[in-house]
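Dear colleague,

Following up on Tuesday's group meeting, I ran the structure prediction for the two-component complex that the binding team flagged. I've pasted the input sequences exactly as they went in, so you can double-check that nothing got truncated or mislabelled along the way. The C-alpha cells for the whole assembly follow below. Feel free to forward this to whoever is handling the docking comparison.

Inputs:
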Amino acid sequence: MHLEPTEEQRQIVATVRRFVREEILPLEAKLDPDASELAREDFARLTGKVRQMGFWGLDIPAEYGGAGVDLVTRTLMAVEMSQHRAGLYAPCYGVFGSAGLAQLYEATEEQKQKYLYPMLRGEKRGFFGLTEPSGGSDPARAIRTRAVEDGGDWIINGSKVFISGADRAHFGLVFARTNAERGRGGITCFIVDTDMPGFHVRRVVHTLRSSHYATELQFEDLRVPAANVLGEVGRGFAIANDRLSRQRIPYAAACIGVAVKAQELAIAYAKERETFGAPLATRQAVQWMIVDNEIDIRTSLWLTLAAAHKADSGQPYRMEAGMAKLVASEAGGRVVDRAMQIHGGYGMTKDLPFERWYREMRIRRVGEGPNEVQRHVIARDLLGAGLR
Amino acid sequence: MAIRMEKPWIELTAENVQALPGQLGVFELADPQGRVVSIGFAGGRSLFGLRSELERALRERPGGATRFRYEVNQQYMSRHRELLMLHVADHGSLPVVNGADPPAGLGRLSPL
C-alpha cells in the first residue's frame, strides 16, 4: 500500500485548499459564528465554480452525474474541505454537493424518477428515519414503529427521534417493523411523502449545534402505497446498513481536517504569544501538547487513508472504517481541546473557531454509530461472528 | 421546556432595554394589539448580545413594535427557526417583519 499521494491528488488537494482559503474563509468571516449556510447568491455562485472544477457531487456515483472520485482522493479532499469554522458538519457549506439518500440508488426506476433524480437535481430533499425513542444503535430490536398491510397499502404508526431535516424534506426513508417475530428480518424500508396525511413533525430537538437541529416525528395511520416499499419487505435492515462503512471514512476525514486547522492555529499562536519573557512555543508543556496533537493527527490520517485504500481495492473494510471513525473522532476532540488550552481565554471565545469545534467534535463520538458500537463491531470482526 | 415563548411582554423602553443582559438569545417583538410582528436573535456577532439587538428594535420600531420578550439561549439559531416555524403553525404565516425577508428553507412543524 502506498500512502504517498499521486501528482493528480496533490493538485486536487492544492485546488481545494485554495478554494477554502480564497472563497470560503472570506465569506465565513462575515457570517454568524454558528452559521451553517451561505447566502443564497453566494451558494449558487460557489456551486457553479465547483461544477466548473469538476468536483460537484463527490459522493454521487459517476453514472448519476457525480464527480466519481475514489475514496482515497475523497478522503484527502475532505481533510481540506473541513478546515474552516463550519467545516466539521458543513464542509465548504455544502457547495460540493451532497449524495443525499444513497439508499435510493437501489430503488426501482419508478422510485428513482419520483425521488432520486429530483433529489440529485436539488429539487427535492429527503430524510433518513431510523432512530426511535427506544434506541438507534440496535435497530433490529429498537424499532417499534409498525407497518401493517391493508389492501394494497401499508399503514404506519409510531415515532422517530433525532431525525435531521424532516421538517424541510419532501420525502423520507422510514424504517418500520412489518413482522414482530423476525428480528432483523422483520424490518421494511418505506419511502414516505411528507405531505401524506398522518405524517407529523412534532418538535425540534436542540443539540450542541446551534444552527442545526434534529426533529421528532409521529406517524398516525400513515397510509403508504406498496409501490413505496424500498427494496423488499423484510430487507430494511440491510438497506439501513448499506453504505454505513463507506460514509464513516469522509466522516473521519472531516475530524482530521478540523484537527489539522486547530493545530495550525495553535502552532502559530504558540510562536507569537509571549509569557514571562519568552514565546509559549519555548515551554515544554506547550511543546508536548503540540507533539501530541501531531501524533493524533497522523495516526488518524493514516488509519483513514488505509481504510479508504482498502475500500478502493475492493477488499472488505468495515473494521478499518470503524477504526478510522473511532480514532479520528476521539483524536479530533483531544486536538481541539489542547489547541484551546494553548490559546487560553481567547480559545473559549466566539472570536475563534475552537468553541464551535469543541461542541461539534463531541457529537462525532456519537454520530455515525457511537464509538462503543464501533468497538463492538471491530471486536466481532476480530473475535468471530459467533461472539455475542 | 415549553416550546412556545410564553413569558410576559415587556414594554419596549430605553430603561427596560438597558437592563437586558449582554448575552446570546432570541426575542419576539409585538405591536400594541399583542400580535407578534418580529422574531429575532442575538448571535455571536451582536456587540452586546440581546441588549444591542433590542436597542436597535427600540430605535427602528420594526412593524410598529411596542413590546418585547426574550430568552437567553446558546442555541439561538435553532431556537429562532423553531419559533418561526411555531408561528407559522399557529398563525398560518410568518410575522410581518420576518415575512418581508423570509429565511431560506424554513421547515414545517405540527406541534401537539
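Chain A has eleven helices and ten strands.

Cheers,
M.
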